[in-house]
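Quick question: who can interpret this fold?

. . .
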Amino acid sequence: MAVFPPQPNAQGVSTSFVVYYSSVDESTGEMWCPDCVRAVPKVAALLDSPHAPDVFIQYVGQRSEWKSPSSPYRAEPYNLTSIPTIVKLEDGVEVSRLADPEFNEEGALAAFVFGTQKQEVVKPLVMVGGNGKVCTDDFCEF
């Protein structure tokens, strides 16, 4: 559970994060932004972590509101250019941000929040045989 205002760490710095998502489309019951929908499980896993930081969620509005040049989230103090975006705050001041498309890259969110190395994703080996059949390390089409 997030505490507001965030509590200082051992160095006396209060660190928190704000995740900006699209709002939920009332006609579908889901966020209108597919990138935001893909990000939700990653953020949920982050919040379930035993060392979860303070994370606050902010919805930027419906598609027409977000796409409008007059969206308040596109101007100061937010200056968002894409969603989802996560902003790191120290003592209430932005120190860094991670925005889409990097937000949804494997391991990027954990690396951003916890300062860990981003995990490399090993792609399965794909071979196309002389017969045009596709094989990977765990599947072969015959």
